[in-house]
Amino acid sequence: MSVTIKQVAERAGVSVATASRALSGGRGVREANREAVLRAADELDYKPNAVAAALRSRTTRTIGMVVPVISNPFFSTLVEAVEREAELGERGLLLATSHYDPEAEARRLRTLLDRQVDALIVIPCHQERSREAFEAAARRVPAVQLDLSVDGTTASWVGVDNGAGILHLVDHLVERGARSLAYIGSEPTDSSARDRLDGYRRAAARCPGPADRVLLGDFSLEWGRGAARRLLDEGAPLPDGVVCGNDTIALGVLRELSAGGVRVPADVMVGGFDDIPFAALAEPALTTVRQPQDRLAAEAMRTVTDMLEGGAEPNRRVAVVPELVPRASTAR
């Protein structure tokens, strides 16, 4: 049978109310009584009832988080960064995945709300179809969008300036001698895919030659390989540089170009976006645009905390400028 707070109070020789205040760090407890209660709790191996404490305080000290997938290394490392930040604030993290399905995403949000989370950090899977469920959840608890966002909402958002990142990469390729470019990305169903595609179309004017080849699929290794195969099979001259919508696509491009006998970077330079852990381990090591995940996680948790404490504006938007990380895949 578990030890009760009444038994702790009896062992310490104080009232139950005093024991409760001492254990919760409340005021109005004499130091001698506080020490006696803490000593009794330790001797009896007392474990407070988290559910009961949550009911009394109307807070569970948990944050719910919904991400599209965990298999994408960018999302998995971002979750770890958010969890570290939550721990610093003595909060737990409950995680759910939508698998890029807005209906599943809506169910996950409802489940987290049923678990009485204090707030939500959401990476919405669709820029339009995620809106209704996200806004419904945001009416119940503080909610922040991280990395991706939904159209038409004033909810707070933390992410990177995707257009600036693509511009950095295009300028880098042109400075390294690229006179023609191609873009391989995802269909613009989420905000990052859209913003990176739009960013490339704007930045393409910086290229002195043709840069109008755009191949769109999804953010996967398989699509990167398939798109690179299409470039190889077209029969037209290969571009000097390939701008990829994320690192996973870029890794697929590297693999398929190598299989086709194309030398990177001597024949074609390749750049990605995100700086996932595998980018530096690729052969050749991948030039990419780094998203500062620790800073993104810290900004998201700061925004959530401020909203819980009543100090954040309802539509805080934090756009972090990403950093170009040159590596061997563009080192002509």
From TrEMBL:
It holds the Pfam family LacI. GO terms for molecular function: DNA-binding transcription factor activity; transcription cis-regulatory region binding. InterPro entries: HTH_LacI, LacI/GalR-like_sensor, Lambda_DNA-bd_dom_sf, Peripla_BP_I. Residues 3-57 form the HTH lacI-type domain. Keywords: DNA-binding, Repressor, Transcription, Transcription regulation. The keyword Membrane does not apply. The keyword Transcription regulation applies. This is LacI family transcriptional regulator. It comes from Nocardiopsis composta. The lineage of its organism: Bacteria, Bacillati, Actinomycetota, Actinomycetes, Streptosporangiales.
